[in-house]
Amino acid sequence: MKSYSKILPALLLFAMILGLSQNVAAQDDARGQAVTLYNQAQELAGSNELDDAIATYRDALEIADDNELTDISERIRTNLARVYYSRASRSFQQFQQQKSLEAVNQTIEYFEEAQAAGEEFSDDQVIQQTTRALPQLHYLKSTIEFRNKEYDAAMASLSTAIELNPNYPTALYQRAIVHKKQSPNETDQTFTYYDQAIEMAERLGDNRTLNNAKTGAAEELIYRANNLKDNSNYRRAAELLNRVSQYDSENSDAYYRLAEVHNLQGNYNDAIQNANQALEYESGGVTERAKIYFELGTAYKALEQNGNACSAFENANYGEFSGPSSHELEFVLECEGYSSRGR
Asked: Is the domain 26-137 a CATH 1.25.40 member?
């Protein structure tokens, strides 16, 4: 019994030593596997085989975590989110060449995965870069969809872009453009979108988008007003034209169209006032100014201010208004120097 009691501790010690040596051997094997996979991943990343590199890094990380190989695990965690971001960046470069929906969808997917990797591995730089890029990618996607006349899809992409970045004037402006194509009869909503873009652009000092949105809104009002005028809806046309000054207080075309509408309504003094405003802001030459002078002459003629009318029609006697103006000068008003009776 005594001999057995002496042998038992020795056997237990031997078993412990054997178990420890086996654990050390197993850990050594795991370290070797992890290092091999890590080196393979590094080579794959260096040759831009990034999908395979990510998968191989993941395999190495799993082995390192399972075997508490902290040094290897930390090294992988430090680099892996950046490999995801490199893949996303290369995808964006390909998208810039192809400009296709397939390419932008792939790029968005890779940036979303890079963002998730940044959060998983606490890489603030990758998180910031992807957070900044994703709204822009959804905006770019919307421009392709708009070009393809996929207006519902374009609006959905813009909604995502704005949700990701509410302070995005360009996306807000693009939403107005898409909406007027998507729902041409919903005029008020279109201008709500224009106003939101303008407000945001002013707040952020985005002068390019600010000017684009103001110009777009003004041109849309003039376009719709002209259609209303052609359909004899003069009151509504004048309402829209009077709104143009909210976006462009020096828009010569708006004042010219107002003069035209007021003449059609018989509001000749208002026509004269708006025609003079149009002349003040018109930067073109005599041909561009001719149409304005023609409306001015029409108003003066209706008020029987023939001297002013003759002067206006004389200034309108250019380009496509030359024929109508000559007729007024010679046969209607019989202006001095033009009257056929005086010949």
From this structure: yes
